[in-house]
Amino acid sequence: MPRASGPLAEALARRTVVLDGGLSNQLTAQGCDLSGGLWTGRVLDERPEQVQAAHAAYARAGAEVLITASYQVGPGHPRAAALLRRSVDLAARAAGDAEQEVWVAASVGPYGAVLADGSEYRGRYGLSVRELVAFHQPRIEALLDAGPDVLALETIPDPDEAEALLSVLARTGAPAWLSYTTAGGRTRSGTPLPEAFALAAGSPQIIALGVNCCDPTEVLPALEAAAATTAKPLLAYPNDGSVWDPATSTWHTPAAPAPWPVRSWRHTGARLIGGCCRIGPDHIAELAAALRPGPEK
């Protein structure tokens, strides 16, 4: 079946769409080495067939949106533009082989991800909005050259970076979603969520707003804050509640997994739901089954 034939925004007006899960954990499960600053970008560079296989695993599980392996590829890499375009192409191939219609979302990770030191969970990089625009613009242009269906401006810790991304987006006219990473009802940089969401609420390019790579317990309060700020579709793709330790490059896993009250998320306006770090194809398959059209589950 070919890739999805209509804009993702049109689908979100009708129903809830299933996102994929964590790319890093799936690549690790496939035996890939993610060490070094590029993270999933290393596999994109050295073993691209494994990236396509990971996308295919999520498509088989029922994911309707595949997020590319471009999260941590920054303009400092000598082949950044080529890798960014490759990331879209690999996801598009997996989407084309899927049994269901599948959209491709080009991941635009935060500046802090390229530093590979956990800065995306802190924000406040000490850069101006103008400097962040200069960082993100060539990445976004390279991704758009490859023809994704939508941009995923994801794991954003700081409204200053959101402002920079929205500035670049306005120049392109491309559709995108924007998702913050949160803790304690604020962005990771400490901004109250209503203020952070309001920044993007008026952007015509933003087709959905929400949160990702956060504890599942953070999702519902964040969605409620977003729903009070905008009528746009909302999105949520949390991790499993683990906490990343950049000093040791390890996850600290909770004793018991947090529940995913998906019905409450949907009632609050979530129309894009999936998983982030440490959420694999099995979890996405369960989510896809719960979100299939029919009696609400």
Task: Tell me the total number of β-strands.
Answer: 12
Strand order of the largest sheet: 1-12-9-8-5-4-3-2
Q: Which CATH class?
A: Alpha Beta
Count the DSSP helices. Answer: 12
Write the layout of secondary structure elements.
Layout: H1 8-12, E1 17-18, H2 23-29, H3 40-46, H4 48-61, E2 65-67, H5 80-97, E3 103-108, H6 111-115, H7 129-145, E4 150-156, H8 159-172, E5 176-180, E6 182-183, E7 186-187, H9 193-201, E8 206-212, H10 219-227, E9 234-237, E10 243-245, E11 250-252, H11 262-268, E12 270-273, H12 281-291
Parallel strand pairs: 1-12, 2-3, 3-4, 4-5, 5-8, 8-9, 9-12
Antiparallel strand pairs: 6-7, 10-11
Helix pairs in contact: 3-4, 4-5, 4-12, 5-7, 7-8, 8-9
Please provide a written account of the structure.
By secondary structure, the protein is an alpha/beta fold. It has one domain: Homocysteine-binding-like domain (TIM Barrel). Helices cover 41% and strands 16% of the residues. The protein has 12 helices and 12 strands. Helix 4 runs parallel beside helix 12 and helix 7 crosses helix 8. The model has no long low-confidence stretch (mean pLDDT 93).
What descriptors fit this protein?
297 residues, TIM Barrel, single chain, 12 helices
Task: Summarize this structure briefly.
This protein has twelve helices and twelve strands. By secondary structure, it is of the alpha/beta class. The radius of gyration is 17 Å and the shape is globular.
